[in-house]
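hiii, so i know i said id send this last week but things got crazy w the move. better late than never?? heres the sequnce for the chain we talked about at the cafe, plus the structure i predicted for it. fair warning i was half asleep when i ran it
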Amino acid sequence: MQQRIEIARLTTILDRPRVINGFPLAAGTAVVWEDASHRRPQAATLPAPTEVLGVCMNGFLRVVEGGWVVGLADAQTIDDWTCAKGEVELTAAGRLRNCELSGTST
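okay and structure toks below
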């Protein structure tokens, strides 16, 4: 029970779109914070596939130094690179930092 209470203290469901850690997140996104001060995000879960900074992403996002690791629902082109479905790393400005390249054109 104590663990559930702690998780609830560290999780916020966004009631409106917000920019967090330089990244625009949709209403309904569940944000997990590092601590109860809610100053630094640790991760987020999108409520549905969502386009953020021109990238269609889904599921669980996690914060990394200077950006986010996000999940792609399908292969897509980001900054002229065709990235495979799965995790990609983006800067807070939405620029591609790292991805597994896809052999499929989008």
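btw The mean pLDDT is 89. thought thatd interest u
miss u guys!!
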